[in-house]
Amino acid sequence: MFLSFPLYLPIFLLLLISFPTTSVTPTNQQLSYTMQASEAETLFTIMETISSDRKWRASHPDPCKPGSTWHGLVCKPGKTDNQFHVFRLDFGSPPNPTCKNTAKFPSQIFELPFLQSVFFFNCFTHATTSISFPPNKTSTSSLQQLSLISNPSLIGPIPPQISSLKSLQILTLSQNRLNRGIPTDLFSLNSLVHLDLSYNMLTGIIPFQMGNLKNLVGLDLSYNFLTGTIPSTIGHLALLQKLDLSSNSFIGRIPDTIENLQTLVFIALSNNRFRGEFPRGLTKLVNLQYFIMDDNPMFINLATEFGHLVKLQELRLANSGYSGSIPSSFSQLKNLSTLSLQSNRLSGEIPAGLSTLPHIYHLNLSRNLLGGVIPFNSSFLKRLGKNLDLSGNSGLCLNPSEAYGVKIGANVCETSKNGSLVLPLKNSQSPCMLCQSSRLWFGTLCALVLHCILFSG
Ligand SMILES: *[C@@H]1O[C@H](CO)[C@@H](O)[C@H](O)[C@H]1NC(C)=O
Ligand SMILES: *[C@@H]1O[C@H](CO)[C@@H](O)[C@H](O)[C@H]1NC(C)=O
Ligand SMILES: *[C@@H]1O[C@H](CO)[C@@H](O)[C@H](O)[C@H]1NC(C)=O
Ligand SMILES: *[C@@H]1O[C@H](CO)[C@@H](O)[C@H](O)[C@H]1NC(C)=O
Ligand SMILES: *[C@@H]1O[C@H](CO)[C@@H](O)[C@H](O)[C@H]1NC(C)=O
């Protein structure tokens, strides 16, 4: 017995830890829901800074007590103490507390040590205010998610002190009026999983330190005034699934290191000043479903390699100066639903294989230099309907046998003396301009007219 006592000691201690002084431990009903006075005071200060919906102190003297919280406040018990703590705060649109016109950004949110998520949606709309941090304090914040969305009077820079939020996993600062450069310190937040700074007025470059964000799954910097090249360190973001850099002023090539991002599903680079060749390892991006890169001064041929990205659902390369022909390899993209190649300088014939794409739904080849007989039959033309646009290619013509009752903005071919289909000599869109808006009977009439024209000469 005596000898075995030490064996029981650890279990005894364990019991002590798990059920400390059972007689004093309150049951669920008895738990004291009071907060630390300092934490409650910080919470009330934040509420009074933001919202005049209520007299917060008077109406909620014990704000974390179950049944006493308001929509937009979530409290949870601390793991190491018996007190409740502010865990999540939401502001903006009802039922969450609404923001008064004089609301200013409350830097006190970074002084709530247990706060994990903060949302300000459509909150700072009148008085200009900036993101700020408490002065001269080493941050004890355990914030994991900070979302400031659609706050038109939130201006100024992203302060470098943002790097003190070491636990941050989701940082969404979208649709505000933040300006200046992205602070380099931000890229020390290597817990970040999602970074969204879209729709602001940010300037400057993306620093090479972006490669530190090795846990990043989503990166959205679209709709800012960012410049410079994509740093080659982007290749270190091995978990990245979504990359959106649209509508900035980025220059240069897409770096070759992008081939390392083999989990990439979505890439959008539209409306920048990218130019030059596509990255050599493009074919390695086997998980890509969306490649969206309209409106760049590329002025090269289209890359045959796109044909290897068999998961592609959308391929958008409009208005970017591409020349040469449409690679026939595009016909291998069996999951493609949208192909946008309009407003380039593409020439040659439309690859017949495009008509075999089973899911194609939106096909815009308008405003190019394409020629020859359109390789689509009437069932294909009807299936796509107005989502097929071949207009503005003066060299294209449609086989008359497929032309009844369809509108695709192209001429109908004529049959030459030797029996091959050729572009009409005169720009004879006129008979079928009428059928374009017509029903089938009118189309038949037009075909008769066409027949007369063809065989009267
Ligand atoms: C913060 O520190 C600076 C110098 O590091 C000092 O000038 C300033 O007074 C301090 N502010 C507060 C509020 O303590
Ligand atoms: C095509 O899409 C379907 C459904 O979205 C998916 O099940 C299939 O795996 C995809 N095919 C390829 C080659 O990715
Ligand atoms: C139209 O073309 C598609 C693909 O080329 C083909 O599968 C289909 O059978 C054709 N339909 C008709 C009515 O010829
Ligand atoms: C095709 O692109 C042109 C030029 O951008 C645009 O005007 C037209 O509406 C598009 N057509 C379709 C069917 O999307
Ligand atoms: C038929 O004539 C056209 C010109 O009218 C010509 O371009 C084409 O090569 C000819 N085709 C054959 C098979 O002779």
UniProtKB/TrEMBL annotation:
SUPFAM superfamilies: L domain-like. It holds the Pfam family LRR_1. SMART domains: LRR_TYP. InterPro entries: Leu-rich_rpt, Leu-rich_rpt_typical-subtyp, LRR_dom_sf, RLP_Defense. Residues 1-24 form the signal peptide. It is found in: Cell membrane. One of its GO terms (biological process) is response to other organism. One of its GO terms (cellular component) is plasma membrane. Keywords: Cell membrane, Leucine-rich repeat, Membrane, Repeat, Signal. It comes from the Eukaryota. PANTHER family: OS01G0750400 PROTEIN, RECEPTOR-LIKE PROTEIN 51-RELATED. This is Leucine-rich repeat. It comes from Dillenia turbinata.
